[in-house]
Batch of 4 targets.
Target 1
Amino acid sequence: MMRIGHGYDAHVFAAGRPLVLGGVIIPHDQGLKAHSDGDAVIHALCDALLGAAGLGDIGRHFPDTDNSYSNIDSRILLRRVRSMLAAQSLAIVNADVTILAQAPKMAPHIEAMRATLAADMGIEPHAINVKASTTEGMGFVGRKEGIAVHAVALLTDA
Ligand code: MG
């Protein structure tokens, strides 16, 4: 059986933090405000994977009221989601991520994100696609107030 899932996340920019997306530190003058490291790519991806598995969402498994997740490296969360899928005998077929950001430019970092995410998910880089778009200046993304990310993932029986 095949199972599809969707995930979405958005975070507001905040000064004095590194910008971490897809497990990669991206040079920028601000990062994303969050209880964790603010990696909206990994958060959306985790929600897509958990959604496909019928396992709820990231907030249910890693609540921001739990201080053990304070400033946590989101790659740890992604690896935990991978373990949850394995425990359900589910394998990742592929995943596709769309980053919505007016700035900074994502293109130079896409391949590093793919390699990092693939390693944490235990899949080949060709099975994880990452792309980015601006919103041509419209909305909170266009005003450079924050970054939004959509993700879809397909699972199959392992
Ligand atoms: Mg988040």
Target 2
Amino acid sequence: MRRASGKNQFFVMSEKIVILDFGSQYTQVIARRVRECNVYSVIIHFNTPATEIAAMKPSGIILSGGPSSVYAKDAPLPDKNIFALGVPVLGVCFGVQLFAQFLGGKVEKGLKREYGKGTLTVKDGSCALFAKLPRSLQVWNSHGDKLTKIPAGFKPVAGTENSEFAAIENREKKFFGLQFHPEVVHTPRGKEIISNFVHGVCGCGKDWTMRNYVEQAVEEIRAQVGKEHVVLGLSGGVDSSVAAALLHKAIGSQLTCIFVNNGLLRAREADVVQQVFGKNFKIKLQYEDASKLFLDRLKGVTDPEKKRKVIGKTFIEVFQEATKRVGQAKFLAQGTLYPDVIESVPIGGNPSALIKSHHNVGGLPKNMKFKLVEPLKCLFKDEVRLLGEELGVPKEIVWRQPFPGPGLAVRILGEVTPARCEILRNADAIVVEEMKLSGLYYKIWQSFAVLLPVRSVGVMGDERTYEYTIAIRAVESQDGMTADWVKLPYDLLEKLASRIINEVKGVNRCVLDITSKPPGTIEWE
Ligand code: XMP
């Protein structure tokens, strides 16, 4: 139920690094690395006027990579005046080409695309970017074009096998260019390079912490909300849970959370939410048990898209009705995250963004006359988890695996019936319990059970059985866009299968899903 407000507002931190996005798939990774150095960062569109950037008072600017060539007809180019702001600039990959383009160097098509691991040799160890780093570093390259003449005022400071200008510097102006990607994990010391830039070169402190964030966000929420009341749809997922805890800290009893039981929840889900938020946090919680309505409407529906539509529409109805009972609320709070509001640059486009969007159909309708409060709007997911810990939200919720809005319905193939929900709920509880016991639950992206309504023959004791199949799905992923199946240990698989078949009535066979994404999806639907 996400409807980002769209406007790319940013949190007011006095120190910040501004990242100009030229369409790299790694732009958000750069922003996260900077924040991991405890420095706030914001991503803005590449053609933002230099005057606007100056008004943001950045401590430094990072030019992201991007799939284009600076010489391409429709190359994304920044306002050239950014180089006259007197602010340190770090150009990454395509960012280096921009220095050449604007400050007088030369870029040529490389004979071969440099892709993958390389070894960087630092020739000038006095360059601030490489302070306290060894002279030889493993780096990750991904570029076709290559710098062949460096701009006036620059000096080469490091090279790779393929390029003598893998890192360049204009010390006087504090401009740096890196042909490789310091932000990716395949450049193991890359974070230190970024830290050297933000701390050593730009002089930033370490003020961006979730502890500081709580303080400032609480003030901002109070200023925005005043004495009015706020409603929040609490799903039990990480984002809405952390938003609830933060809002509660800021405005206490002015917050009412609405928790809708759609009948498609996991075992104990409704109890946990009521216990944690109602009893422990003492948040005003309105529990809406609409499971019968949802399951009635799902009767006979087998088409996956149709199921999603029915669930989305019913949710809106139930939620809308529930808000009426809350009374005087003027504000609706949402757990919108930063990646939802970054104005993305489609060049070299990221088609996965399109694939993802179907998940979020059915945002709340515009005619709900609420003003929005989005207190997580400038945070990345990993920051939301840290914020949750800071606020005392239990680990079970803060570090839980993603669970889709339509719940068990996307894990029951064919018709969703109360009996099938019960079977899947029981099987899923075993998967979660065993994954937690094995220590793997918090290490991987998702692990769950899927119900296949195909019956097959089995024997149990002396009896012949004819029951359903459970598929076990466990995947590793960074963001859900791509995923690999996890090679779970055999003894764990054995335990899962034996417990599920023995303990879950209605199941007599267990299989393992070994499909990666692509070509598969994570959920079966
Ligand atoms: P797929 O199945 O498309 O899922 O590979 C990718 C990730 O998205 C989650 N997912 C959803 N999340 N609402 C959500 O909030 C949804 O409707 C939804 N459908 C799938 C899925 O669990 C996986 O992490």
Target 3
Amino acid sequence: MTNMPVCRISGQPLHAFLDLGMMPVANAFLTKAQLAQPEFKFPLRVGFCETSLMVQLIEMVDPAQLFHGNYAYFSSISRVMEQHFAQLADAVAAELLYDKRLPVVEIGSNDGILLAKLAAHAPAVGIEPSGNVAAAARARGLDVISEFFEPGLAARLRAERGAAQLVVGANVLCHIPDLNALARSLDVLLDANGIFIFEDPYLLEIITQLAYDQIYDEHYFYFSVLSLSRLFAAHGLRIFRVEALPVHGGSMRVYGCRAGAQRATEPCVQTQLALERQHGLHLLQTYVDFAERVRQSRAALFTMLYDLKQSGRRIAGYAASSKGTVVLNYCGIGPQLLDYICDNTPGKQGLYAPGTHIPVLPIEHFAADRPDFAFVLAWNHMREIMAKEQAFTQAGGRFITHIPSAAIV
Ligand code: DWN
Ligand code: SAH
């Protein structure tokens, strides 16, 4: 008997290629009292299935443990993301919505950052299991059901509100552990001409930029167009358009419909599939090579921060992101190197970072403190952060990034 892990989609063997060690839950920020208690950790390991072509976590934390009444991430913390979702809603309304009465369903609507924009164009309902962020959206007057999206809920939505002309989800598909059930839910809910749109961090960007910190408990899957088109095809669904996006360090938006819908598959889909094959996203060896590069990058980052600290410089972390939890824990970067992490989310301030126990302080503290270096743990928001922190750089402060390799910028 071997203990070979299996793919959550195909049931076929999963080849483990990367081990990021024992890891806390990325968004499980701790109170001072919790610091003395044992912290939950799990083995953060990633595998590739040669049948589904899906990259995925091997050990998974139960979604109920991650998405609950106290979810740490509020989408509206970023102006750039506000603009990004406003553009999506406008484009969808102009081109793809076709019936003012048919519902639009957003999965993972969080604090309403996109749902608010969609609601201006059609009856829009958000599905958001994390109670606190759902409450923030409701406080904006939005219609939100605080449950996990699954086939039973899809059937209820269809019976009570009608078939959906659009099902949309940003940064949520990769958070759903049973993607076959997700595809069945789409089949239940979508109108005959309905479309679905999902955008998530893009595997090709993760590989090329060495963005291994996109790998954490909440992200069960890392998508290519190759893997998603196989998944949807097995459920009578078809991707008809793909769009590369700059947000969150490089994302991919896929547009889909029923396989037999009157909508042509656009040439960009074949182009992207060919590009992914050129980069070897269908080959285990690509991921084995990626893992080797990740291991090498760890020493480079640690050494750089260590040397700065040894030379008497003070370093703060900037943004207590989920990704930050991974890079800090994987590289052994704790309070010995970073004095604190500043963050603009009120709910994270005054708490301690998972695993490393570095204190999380308000952004105002950073402005007053003026450390020598700010290690940006939300490198995906680098431009937005650098634009708002010009006083820091003008006073001689410098930013550090680890993507694609450790550097002072
Ligand atoms: O997929 C997910 C993405 C969309 O959001 C979730 N699984 C969780 C979350 O990931 P993350 O925590 O890595 O998200 P961000 O958007 O990279 O990080 C945001 C963090 O950075 C927040 O804690 C707020 C902070 N921040 C800040 O302090 N100042 C962000 C910006 C833009 C700023 O100016
Ligand atoms: N769409 C937002 C939020 C992304 S964070 C954005 O792009 O910024 C992921 C969100 O998905 C969280 O708010 C989480 O609670 C929610 N979520 C996780 N699993 C879900 C599921 N099965 N159904 C619906 N929402 C889910």
Target 4
Amino acid sequence: MSKPGAVSETFGCNTFSLTEMQKRLPRPIYEAIQATIASGEPLDTGFADEIAHAMKEWAVERGATHFTHWFQPLTGATAEKHDAFLSFVDGRAIERFSGSQLIQAEPDASSFPSGGMRSTFEARGYTAWDPTSPAFLVENEHGSTLTIPSVFVSYTGEALDKKTPLLRSMRELGRAARAVLELMGRPTKGVASTLGAEQEYFLVHRDLFKLRPDLEVTGRTVIGTTPPKGQQMEDNYFGTIDDRALDFMGEVEAEAWNLGIPVKTRHNEVAPHQYEAAPVFQPINVSSDQNHLLMDIMRKVARRRNLAVLFHEKPFAGVNGSGKHNNWSMADAEGRNLLEPGDNPDQNVEFLFFLSSVLRAVHHRATLLRASIASAGNDHRLGANEAPPAIISVFLGDRVTEILDTLLAGKDVSAVQDQVIQTGIEVLPEVVKDNTDRNRTSPFAFTGNKFEFRAVGSGQSNSMPMAWLNLAVAEALDEMWSRLKGRLENGEERNEAILAVVKEVYADAKPVVFNGNNYADEWVTEAERRGLPNLVNTPMALASLVEDEAKEFASKYGMLQPHELDARYVILLEKYNRMIDIEAVQAIRMAKTGVLPAAYAQQAVMAEAWKGVKKLDIDSSAQKEELETYCGLVNETLLAIDGVRQALANAPDEEEAPEKADWCVSTTIPAMDRLREVCDTLERRTDEELWPFPSYHALLFQ
Ligand code: ADP
Ligand code: MG
């Protein structure tokens, strides 16, 4: 039990933090690291030995025996390969960790997907220390491992991970935003994007989880009948957290805090046994790493407490799904949030400028944002029935929309400026804060002083969604910079020129703003009228990655080269195809080995009963009908199993990833849906005692 007040004293004790570095490193080295973290300046590799030594001393004092570079490969979550510090000098055992080991490692990582890049370029992959994200200790029974956040790249510079593009996008956004501020006469040393990722998840009893091979293998239930309507209990949201979940959260938080993850908020989510954890925002690369770490901690703690944590976007059909709301903003080196209106018109026109740059970015690069969140799991949350559409739009709230609309409506810029500055811009902070009408249906919402990208899936890494968002905003800012520069050179007054650019950009991007109900059918039609893309499934969304325009965009900014996008496209499609195949195989297996045996038993009981009854002189026609219906369902199950089997057997080869993905959409998934439908009907008609899998009711209410 920790004592009151203890958290602040131990917070971050398992990280090699700036405070720790200050204690242990010579001042110039410490200052160099600080500068690297603050502005992304490259770190002098000449310091590596001393940093490595200090890091090792710190880690070994805390029981570390091993170190590892820790990175985000293109599939899966994170990867690591441990090496012991143990070395031998003249037959004597010592702990050793050199600068070069800190800076670079060469995991034998040939099994990670590279979409053919490494074989094409004959380049080996290596991991490189990311000094902007603190190293940390992961404890185990026998000691701990010094874990070094890293990137994973090829020798020819291709990004083989998710973090490299993120770091590159941060660089671009920082550069673009800095240039804009400079032009506005408010220079700053740097601009960083910030992220606070709210993590949604389910907790279920591990004993029950173990009885659901679909949950265990695919992360979701591929069969299972939805609880009757109303059973989801609307009052769960923010309700009292049950003790089991609270104990789990407490243990997770204690570990997270030691690792410097500022988890702050916890509450129940909409569905039973669904929860959310939210840390305080951080620079985006740090919070992206920390989110991976938090998920790891949750998995471990759940296991310890005989629970299972579900990060799948839709573990239960018909029940609220899970997301990872990415709260995103930009902050300058002085700590000012660029999406926060200020105390005076100067700051408020800047706010409108940055706000509209995001509108432009989301409008212009919607397909790439959509691609960045595409996965087999997230398809159940986006674009499917019982889910909001996959249309990327922005919720701005009525007041902010009104301000922009007023600006747009004015024929005479100076009149508009007067009107807005006097009635709106002066009091903008109040107006914006007032904007509490949160629209939970929007995939991308402005929430007062930040945007919230809500369509990100609960199970995925934040890195690529954030990388594309950063880059899209960088592009918008660059373009707006040119416009602003032109106007200022023409002698326009600063605020007038800024507002004029805002107006132009808003006029163009306005179709992306939608404050209404995203779940309404009319929105799909309306969005189409507005020309917004609606990429309803993963293959459609991923195709955006390889369009010429996307390649030009990503390579122009040095984030990813065209052949890297080609490779990523294939890797992500293959991952999708594999997941659908696994789900299909799992569905067949459960139907054959669980559902059918139960159904035969039920059928036998019914047939036996009917045999006894039909000899008697009583009306038993309804029972006969019931038996016939049941037998019919069993028959349909067999046919549906065969349908899935055929879909798998006739699918295009794995090597033809796009064709195979189309087949999954057109054939495999519908066949699985059909099988699920009959299995779920049987479940509703079969003796609970006979049913081989824990029901939704058991999973969600026990
Ligand atoms: P809510 O969305 O429920 O109102 P908060 O506003 O407190 O909750 O924040 C939700 C998440 O947004 C938290 O993770 C918080 O740290 C993060 N957040 C707040 N401000 C920013 C910001 N400027 N940049 C990025 N994330 C932010
Ligand atoms: Mg929120």
